[in-house]
Design goal:
Blueprint: H1 2-9, H2 13-21, H3 25-33, H4 37-46, H5 49-58, H6 61-70, H7 73-82, H8 85-94, H9 97-106, H10 109-119, H11 126-129, E1 136-137, H12 143-153, E2 162-166, E3 172-177, H13 178-182, H14 190-193, E4 201-202, H15 207-217, E5 221-225, E6 231-236, H16 237-255, H17 270-297, H18 299-304, H19 312-335, H20 344-373, H21 378-408, H22 418-440
Parallel strand pairs: 1-2, 4-5
Antiparallel strand pairs: 2-3, 5-6
Helix pairs in contact: 3-5, 4-6, 5-7, 7-9, 8-10, 15-16, 17-22, 19-21, 19-22, 20-21, 21-22
Length: about 450
């Protein structure tokens, strides 16, 4: 990177062009992002034609917009025609309407129609992330004819390693790989070697279901059909990786009690970040007032024995952590398909047993510590450790059930994560603690 930047500063553009021609398009895009706006356009125009569109697809939307606004209609047309359809659609979804109109005006009729078709699919559906650049074969072809077709038409396709067999109405009939073709004689018919048991998705399926299919069957690409079983595109593994990153980021943000954001952190304004966080902060602040109400209700208890108050942070903190562990484990297991809502009784039973084991160990350690720290206060020590034990059991039960209940209510289980679980468990642990204290200590 430093070498390239030095070439730019010293205006050694011939050396720079030669060096860029050897680089991967993703690295070229990373290099361009380090430059000022004028030099970005200069470097883009310097790229060989076969690299320009590929590098353009890796750029951030704001840089894409700047380049489009700085080049001619002919250059814009070249970009949109050279981009894979899924990359073009992703770009247009991020650009302002005025820029989109210009891009669509410069695109060819066929490209424009194809992009419009893709833009009509529901957001975050299989149709919205697929591409139309695939190899389609016919079952009456032999291996030699299939290779000839791939050589003639494969140069502009997203992938040629998996080919799909369709009939005259584009209905999907089978799938054949390059390995299958290589391992069979030239005269063998496609219909004799193709796999008719095709794993596929429908255009309206959620993109998370597409990710699940890739994970389950170790796919490199997945055919996408319409409701009449006609092949309309494929989803490739690079798009699935993007979806996995997007979904993981969204879940992490929800689990941290924030509204998801599509923009990179450094390019998100402070007011937008604040807006994404303030809603849940307000909800959690108001719900935390319940804890204060509980403390007020039992004011007489800790007025009679002030020592009780010193154990509240330990109880609420341990309870919150225990509940967060369970909720995080269950949310992750639900995400990767390890558990289903119908498993709720097995999950609760397992978490209760885990809570008993963990609770006994923590209660034992605390009892020893408290007896050494407060000799003669045996009943107080018993009150604390019994409360701790019950708090952990209660926290893990709540932590494992709330995500499942959220899914049953068609909500995202990720919202039932650490902050919300901790707030609920805090209130429950205080009630348990002071009820036990009132009965055992006769306050």
């Amino acid at each position: 990177m430093e070498e390239l930047l030095q070439y730019v500063e010293e205006r050694k553009f011939r050396l720079l062009r030669s060096r860029l021609a050897e680089m991967n398009e993703a690295d070229i895009a990373e290099f361009m992002e380090e430059l000022d706006d004028n030099k970005k356009v200069l470097i883009f125009r310097m790229l060989p034609k076969d690299q320009a569109a590929d590098a353009f697809a890796f750029l951030e939307p704001d840089i894409q917009q700047h380049i489009i606004n700085s080049i001619t209609d002919a250059e814009v047309s070249k970009i949109i025609e050279d981009l894979f359809v899924d990359d073009a659609v992703d770009m247009l979804e991020e650009l302002p309407a005025t820029v989109v109109k210009r891009v669509m005006r410069t695109a060819g009729t066929e490209t424009r129609q194809l992009i419009n078709q893709f833009l009509q699919y529901p957001e975050n559906s299989a149709g919205s992330i697929m591409t139309a650049e695939y190899i389609g074969l016919k079952k009456y072809m032999n291996v030699e004819q299939a290779f000839a077709y791939i050589r003639a038409h494969g140069v502009d396709k997203e992938t040629i390693y998996t080919c799909f067999v369709t009939d005259g109405q584009r209905r999907l009939e089978g799938v054949v790989t390059i390995k299958d073709l290589l391992m069979n004689p030239y005269e063998m018919k496609i219909q004799d070697i193709m796999d008719e048991n095709v794993i596929k998705a429908v255009t309206t399926e959620d993109q998370e279901e597409v990710v699940d299919l890739f994970n389950k069957y170790d796919l490199m690409c997945l055919p996408v059909v319409d409701h009449e079983e006609r092949l309309v595109g494929i989803v490739t593994v690079d798009d699935v990786v993007d979806v996995m990153e997007e979904e993981a980021t969204e879940d992490i943000e929800k689990m941290a009690a924030m509204l998801p954001s599509d923009k990179p952190y450094l390019k998100t304004g402070i007011f937008e970040l604040a807006k994404n966080r303030i809603v849940w902060l307000t909800v959690l602040m108001i719900s935390s007032m319940i804890t204060g109400s509980i403390l007020t209700y039992y004011e007489a208890a800790f007025a009679a024995l002030p020592l009780l108050v010193s154990f509240v942070p330990m109880l609420t903190g341990t309870g919150g952590n225990a509940g967060s562990q369970s909720s995080t484990t269950i949310i992750r297991a639900m995400t990767i398909g390890d558990v289903e809502p119908r498993d709720i009784l097995r999950i609760v039973w397992k978490e209760i047993r885990v809570a008993v084991v963990v609770g006994v160990i923590l209660a034992g350690l605390n009892f020893i510590r408290l007896m050494l720290q407060y000799p003669g206060e045996t009943l107080v020590c018993v009150t604390v450790v019994v409360s701790l034990m019950l708090t952990i059991i209660l926290a893990k039960t709540i932590g494992c059930t709330l995500p499942i209940l959220a899914q049953l209510l068609h909500l995202d289980p990720a919202i039932m994560a650490a902050p919300l679980i901790s707030t609920i468990v805090d209130a429950c642990s205080l009630i348990v603690y002071f009820q036990i204290a009132c009965h055992l200590l006769a306050i």
